[in-house]
Amino acid sequence: MSFEINVDDVVLCKVKKIEGTTVFLDIEDGGVGSMVLSEVAAGRIRNLRNYVSPGRIIVCKVLKISGGQIELSLRRVTAKERQEVLETSKKEKALRSVLKVVKENPDKIVSEIKEKYGVIDFLSEVRENPKLLDEFIPKEKAEKVFQMISEKEGKEKIVEKKFKLKSDSEQGLEDIKEILNLKDVEIHYLGSSKFSVSVSGKDFKEANQNMEEILEGIEKRAKKSKAEFELKREK
Question: Is it the case that residue 194 has pLDDT exceeding 80?
Fold first, then answer.
């Protein structure tokens, strides 16, 4: 295992396989874990593939570590935790791609950074103090890395909304799947007919506009299928 995992950590995982009532997963930064079906989602699971399938990337919470065995849960991860892990993963991939361009060893440098900082905290501090890069990257390349990081940081903003979607028809599950069958949109099931949707844009204005269009589309599809749609208003 390349990094330390503790109980209650929230980690990015890739579904490796499903055998019987157990889901086996590869943890992104190293290590493997497993998850019983009761930890996939609350209540009865009618279609397991709506939640997990081989190759799918999901965010899980560490429940127990015993003798090298890591037990994970999908249903116990909150929307906020999921968003934070996905955002960190996105930032880390962007940082790695920048380091590759300047012909540095991205894996080594990112590992060194993560020993002292969280990736998002590091990038935030670099914006205020570019010289922080000198600690990990040769000075002659640090300026170019800072410029590229600044450009990437300014490209996309993410907006998240929550909504309720419910159908009482006989084919309710299929209706829900059809209503939410949208391209390039990240939607997560939160339990009890509640969902979260994340949308990106070059700035918050564009991201919010994209979000409005997506929610309008979902609402229209829901009405057509006679499903109940309710947008959760921010408090």
Answer: yes
Q: What is the pLDDT of residue 133?
A: 92
CATH homologous superfamily of domain 10-76?
Nucleic acid-binding proteins (2.40.50.140)
Quick one: pLDDT at residue 169? 86
Could you identify the residue written with the tokens 């009618």?
46
| Tokens read off for 84 | 């934070």
Taking only the tens place, the pLDDT of each residue in 206-217 is: 788 888 999 999
Q: Look up the pTM and report it.
A: 0.60
pLDDT of 154 > 60? The answer is no
Would you say domain 157-232 falls under CATH 3.30.70.1130? yes
